[in-house]
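Assemble and predict.
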Amino acid sequence: MTARHHAVHPHGDEPPRITVESAGSAVVQDLGRPGNGDKGISVNGAADRGSAQTANVLVGNPPDAPLLELAGSTTSLRFNADTLVAVTGARTQPLVGGRPAPTWDPFVVESGATLELPTPQQGWRLYVAVAGGLTAPRLLGSVSPDPMLGVGRRLARGDQLDLAVCACGYQHPHYGLPLFRLGARRPSWPSTAVVEVTPGPELEEFDAAALRGPWEVSPQSDQVGLRAEGPTPRRSGDAEILSRGVPVGAVEVPPSGGLLVLLYGRLLTAGYPVPYVSTTVALDTLGQVRPGDSLLLQETDVPTAVVRLMDARRGLAELAERAGTALRTSGLQT
Amino acid sequence: MTGRLEVRPYGDAGLLVGVLGDDYETRWSMTQALAAAVREARPPWLVDLVATYDHLFVTFDPGSRDHHGVETSLRELDDALGEEAAALEAGGRTFTVPVLFGGEGGPDLDDVAGELGVSADSLVERLSAEPWRVRFVASPVGTPFTDRPDWEASVPRMKAPRVAVPPGSIALSGSQSIIYPVKSPGGWRLVGRTPLRLVDASGSDDLVAYRAGDLLEYQPIDADRFAELAEQGAHLGDEDEA
């Protein structure tokens, strides 16, 4: 017997869904809209992709399935059907019906129970994946909020999120306890974040030591860019830089001082010098820094950065395989 | 072929390709031609492409091809380029953009005219005299970055950017002009506003009608015509595709 039924109506005619009791900053998120640079559309999507993808594969979803992203806030969700859930990202202690629930491993929230996600103690963003993913309107293939496109929104108290599937009928004596130990990598988020960067086109125009930091993360940061305050690095060149494409992770030195590190919501072109570019793996760290945290830039080379990225991808693929086996064996996934 | 590419790493999944050439027009047309060739070839490693005045920013999957391999492919595509560059410029379509200059939608018109030492009427006349060439389309969402050979004014930006520029605003900065397609923050100087919508996000058509190489012609209209067109909810490119 499989424990997973489609279109099961657990409470009479009520479809399986989540009711938002306290929204905090929650948005429905995925990996955004890559490949639309020629239209001027930013990538957007989850700020800490490693955590988002891990949450998804822990419940048997594709890594890019829609899930909840919460940033530095307290959120509370009520489930009306038994649901397989995973919480990753920043460090917090989730509670199911008031009892501690795990992070970085899947667990079942019982029908009628409330999942509470307190404000993180370390790191900034939490990811909550539910088996089957969340449904939300898509534009250009993504549910990700984009303020420029005018799509997506923050959830509000009383909102209801339909669940594609439920874990209805799954017999487990300890709701809210971890079902398996799948060994997902659990990053830590110290208040001094070390960000690995590779040399950018204008590195030679700066004194590398002056770029290292520590920089203080400004509260003015948003999904477009992370502002880091500190002494303005002196640029030796003064050639005007015509607007050109800029990568997510570009470390820009604007004339207003400090650094601007571009994140997934970045505009596609800019004309500031770019001495460094964050590695893809380090972007996850940038997605977890809090206002007031310190940033240290640590130079690495491209081949090393690519090796780390491939390691991270392999780790995720292996985790997905372990999770798939565990979920199928236990009847939670067909 | 341009034969002169300056290729530099731009992160662990990107390359910044500078296209060298004798003059601005050559660099731009070669950049756009190379971008078109890459899109046409659809290599499996390609993730995204941003082509601007004289740079191509290529995002790729380093798990599929390494930096050196991507650079080799780009140089091969560049070597194979023929007459596309010239064709790009000659093939530009012209779109008419009705604009209500000055007033509420163009709050900076008088100031900009003053800075350039001309009357507001004369500035409107000059802005509408020749079409503006779309050099590339970028952020936010489908913004056309345009210029034209006979416009060499240097318009300074706002000292403090506006928090919300209304969609359709016609703006100047340096020697360039853009139209803001969506409500967004912005530091360019606003001289007028078009009632036409630029973005069609329905997904059935292209997001915007124009692309690099096309021409935008500003056509002055009065407040009544503005209201009429705004009422119709017309999109840019609905009528004219010259």
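The domain at 192-300 of chain A is CATH 2.40.100.10 (Cyclophilin).
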